[in-house]
Amino acid sequence: MKLALRDYQQEDFEKLYEIDQACYESAVAYSRRELRNYLRFPGAECVVAVAENNMVGFCLTAREGARGHIVTIDVLEAFRRTGVGAALLEEVEHGLARNGVREVGLETATDNDTAIAFWKKHGYRTLGVWKGYYPGGRDAYAMSKALASAKQAKKGN
Question: Is-contact 58 64, C-beta < 8 A?
């Protein structure tokens, strides 16, 4: 499978929304308004993954100073475990580091073993639990990862 990553463009919005709706149950998936608001956050960046001439996933981040946050990473089910999520994550982490982010955080449901394993595999550590974070009272792990600065990353290559 040939995968291409590129920056989000406004005309991608409806497809982003469709992907988010497909990836999460309705109580958790973002409304159009919420998704638009996240895309407009100061320091927001969104990378999309395209395979087989179709958008198959995206990752939306936000940053402020040295702190970054992964708002969501969505990959259509048929393309999971194919490297799409890892490629998106690597791309956004590099982008965050280039923009001075030294630590990135996220939340993931405590009952989502697949997501927890993904984040841990990519170096994220659990900081604690946010009780009742998700609709319906589901808890979330707050997770974090230190990023190498762009200078440090360059020296490592």
Answer: no
- Residue 60: domain span: 3-156
**Gap between the Cα atoms of 112 and 141, Å rounded:** 10
Q: What is the CATH number of the domain that holds 136?
A: 3.40.630.30
Reported as a single tens digit per residue, the pLDDT across 116-127 is: 999 999 999 999
pLDDT in tens, 76-90: 999 999 999 999 999
Residues 23, 74 contacting (CB under 8 angstroms): yes
Per-residue tokens: 63: 């940053």
Provide the domain count of the chain: 1
Q: How far apart are CA 56 and CA 52, in angstroms?
A: 9
pTM of the model: 0.91
Type of residue at 82:
T
Read off the DSSP letter of residue 145. Answer: E
3-state SS class at 35 = helix
Q: Please report how many Cα atoms fall inside a 13 Å half-sphere around the Cα of residue 120, on the Cβ side.
A: 10
The two beta strands, 103-109 and 125-130, are: unpaired
